[in-house]
Amino acid sequence: MLNINGLTACYGESEILHDIHLSVPDGKIIALVGRNGVGKTTTLKSIMGLVRSPKGSITLAGEELQKKPPYERARMGIGYVPQGRDIFPQMTVAENLRLGLEVCGGKKQDPTELYRLFPIVEKFLPRKGGDLSGGQQQQLAIARALIAHPKLLMLDEPTEGIQPSIIQEIGHAIRTINEKTGLSILLVEQYLDFALDLADECYVMDKGQIVLHVKSGEADKDEIQQYMLAS
Ligand SMILES: Nc1ncnc2c1ncn2[C@@H]1O[C@H](COP(=O)(O)OP(=O)(O)OP(=O)(O)O)[C@@H](O)[C@H]1O
Ligand SMILES: [Mg+2]
Predict the structure, then answer these.
(1) Lowest-confidence region among 85-99, 104-118, 153-167, 209-223
(2) Which terminus of the chain is more exposed, N or C, with fewer CB under 10 A?
(3) Where are the domains of the chain?
(4) Is 39's C-beta closer than 6 angstroms to any atom of ligand 1?
(5) Is pLDDT above 90 for 102?
């Protein structure tokens, strides 16, 4: 589904990502883990076209994304849930959800399946986004990305600052949508157990490079944990 080859990314003159190779096969959940500041968010932003990436290629279902603007990448089927969720606090849940439809030209979608995955989204439709809890906002942000039926869903630390029971609900929703629809998912996480539990494969990033790539079932947690500790 997604193939990244030899990617670099820069903020101004400083190169943040160096020669990244990463693949998300069709229908798989792939985790990208690493400690604070190693370049996980920058990787997702590069895929979305939000950061300058002068070298390398990024293909989605065989089509090159480099040089395409962010809205076109979204339209081609990338759903992106940024870190910190980014919902609009003054807009209602229903309005926030409707924004997700812009990607598919505002075309109406049947939200039944989404409401089954995230009952609180339906329950709180008239409520202001800002009045939801952090975990509920995260669920809304994921629902907003899913409403346009992306081919690839990218989640940036969906468990950050969220209570355990809602983390479980989010994990369950991610697994369900992957199993039911075969949606490919790139999951950025620092919560290693959550990532390994959900993902088929795991990439570990350190200082802007991929330093390890393992199948989750064969992962040596202690080895990964070494990279997760602050250096
Ligand atoms: N807009 C920016 N301008 C300049 N440098 C930036 C910018 N955004 C991020 N950086 C730097 O790029 C590096 C990678 O940041 P990034 O946000 O990708 O890390 P991360 O792995 O997502 O960290 P976290 O787990 O804390 O979210 C860091 O050193 C950070 O300070
Ligand atoms: Mg980040």
Answers:
(1) 104-118
(2) C
(3) 2-228
(4) yes
(5) no
